[in-house]
Amino acid sequence: MTRSRIAPLAVFGLAIAALWPVNAGAKVERVEIDSVLPAPRLAGAPDYEIVSGRFYGEVDPKAPGNAIITDIAFAPRNSRGLVEYSATFTLARPVAPDKRSGVLFYDVPNRGNGFVSANPYGHVQVMSGWQGDIAEGLGLQTLRAPAARRSDGQPLTGPVLVRFVDMPPGTASAAIVGSIGRPTAMPLPVSLDTRRAQLTVQMGQSGPRRAVKARDWAFADCSRKPFPGEPDPAKLCVRGGFAQAAAYSLVYTAKDPKVLGLGLAATRDLIAFLRHAPTSGASGVVNPAGLISWAVASGTSQSGNFLKSFVNLGFNADENGRIVFDGINPNIAARQVPLNIRFAVPGGAARPGEPGSEGSLWWSSYHDTARRRGTSSLLDRCQATSTCPKVIETFGSAEFWGLRMAPGLIGTRADRDIPLPSNVRRYYFPSVTHGGSYVGGFPMGGEAVPEGCTLAGNPNPMLPEFLGLRQRLVEWVRDGRAPPPSKYPTLAAGDLVKAESSALGWPAIPGAPQPDGKLNKLQNQDFGNGLRYKDLSGVLLKLPPKLRGEIPQRVPRVDSDGNEMAGVRSVQLIVPLGTYLGWNVVARGFDAGSGCGFAGGFIPFVATRTARLSVGDPRPSLEERYGTHDGFVARVRDAAARQQAAGWITTQDAEKLVEQAKASDVLVSDR
């Protein structure tokens, strides 16, 4: 369906907004629908259609719920004194209104990525743009946010840090970008004079950091013209090219920051609109979501961090004081998202010098004496307004090893378990990579080696259990049916220990790397007094940040196979084919030998006892564990039945696992 054919029925303008009584502090001003298309059929689901378009909103910068947005006081205003933004959205809804469950399920996009589809439960599925530093592109969810400037027209400025690590051989110049997964353009410098900026280089992790002389680098493109190249504020050129196995850090003064915190308000206002806007009006225009009684949100990784910040900063109360999301699921999300910061890089991923773990990380009140930041919790603001959601938090091993999850459980002193409030459940998936394997099954050699790493990829999944828990969240919100008790590692149970072989009980596997030195350290980073640390909001004045010591962390201990024990175990972990790791090893370059981001690894068991003894592997072989292929299948069938009976997986999941075990090569010599 084209825009021209549907525009008369699809634009939510001033007339319909007037029918929906809202506080003038924030509202969706209009919605433009670009297309309404049939969704691919899903067995067991009603017919669905997918609605895509853009919504336009405005916020009062002086309203209490908006004043927390960094630099909103400097944003341009319209004739009504309001700050405008717009963002994309897509929703999937049952075609027949009587097939809709009344539940709105919001999937927070990750770096603009996401999709909606037919749903067997009849939920309306929604996603929308919130990240304003992503270039607009087909299928991406993006936000248009204004740039902030002083009232006299002079630019707002501040320091920016950009790192360049392991540049490819022969690189003459490099784009100045941030984020991972989807590089985002960094703000432009105030001046191209390199004497007003600083570039340092470090050769290897243990090498000293030294300054690169101002005459030996330039804001320039050297791809067509030798150094100093052609002036370009968006590129960096180094005389003689970038050194190998090196990390460069560029700090410069930037101008014209986008008000990226508006992404929080945009999400709040869209969901409030879809929940409360009329389903019919004098013009015949209808709310595209229909009647909504409950709203639930799930975000994975960066998107889960977004949900934590959304609640922490008070955005789960709309401008009329109503709750926005009745339930949230931050999945594999160890931090807050560094979004509400001048010159923010919300697509960062816990790399050196990046903020994210500085704010509140815990659901109950905790006194952060180690960093002298007082007492706080992620729920302080929503408790004050009685708008706290029900929370199901899900995560796995890689979040401990690569994303610094431990302080959220045991604080910055690592000396006690922080209890969970009654509206929060926590479930841990042991021995999985970031997000778990999406392939599943029983591959004997693991998955493909993650890029830049040493060990095979970790094939241990968490998806069946995770999807089940998301539905439990809906039932908790809609029906009041509480999910199972939380299940995660604790200090009290002896589950959490130092990330050292001796403390972990790590088996001496011949030729395999040890976990020592693979933990992503959590530094106490001092970004200056322009940052409101509890809120992870404000202005970073010290870049790179001053390091004021290391915050202790803990990781789950392992059994004699090297596999973690606490939490909700998958059938693959109950019936293992090897050692499933939440960490891996960088193969080469600047970080060689350290933990490989948040990629997990896999060390397979030896097939036979004879082969095991010949290499000195202390872990029993597949033959010793299961005897034959049929014995392995029987063990999988038993484990799947037990996990199904406990409610962690569905009947369909259990049957699928048994079929995958039958089709596997485990202890089959003629395949």
Relevant terms:
ten-stranded mixed sheet; four-stranded antiparallel sheet; 14 helices; globular; Abhydrolase_dom; Alpha/beta hydrolase domain-containing protein
Could you explain how this protein is built, in words?
This protein has 671 residues and is α+β, with helices and mostly antiparallel strands. The model is unreliable at 1-25 (pLDDT under 50). The protein is globular, with a radius of gyration of 26 Å. Among the domains are: 1-150 and 258-292, no CATH class; 157-255, no CATH class; 606-671, no CATH class. Strands 1, 2, 3, 4, 5, 6, 18, 19, 22 and 23 form a ten-stranded mixed β-sheet that branches. The chain contains 14 helices and 32 strands. A hairpin with a 7-residue loop joins strand 20 (366-367) and strand 21. Helices cover 19% and strands 23% of the residues.
Topology at a glance:
Elements: H1 3-10, H2 14-19, E1 26-38, E2 48-59, E3 83-94, E4 103-107, E5 124-128, E6 143-144, E7 157-165, E8 173-175, E9 177-178, E10 184-185, E11 198-203, E12 209-212, E13 217-218, E14 220-221, E15 230-231, E16 235-238, E17 246-255, H3 262-276, E18 294-300, H4 302-312, E19 327-331, E20 366-367, E21 375-376, H5 380-385, E22 390-396, H6 397-403, H7 406-410, E23 424-429, E24 456-457, H8 463-479, E25 496-497, H9 501-504, E26 522-526, E27 531-532, E28 537-538, E29 546-551, E30 555-556, H10 571-574, E31 578-580, E32 601-604, H11 609-615, H12 622-626, H13 629-645, H14 651-663
Parallel strand pairs: 4-5, 4-18, 18-19, 19-22, 22-23
Antiparallel strand pairs: 1-2, 2-3, 3-5, 3-6, 7-17, 8-16, 9-10, 11-12, 11-17, 13-16, 14-15, 20-21, 24-32, 25-30, 26-29, 27-28, 31-32
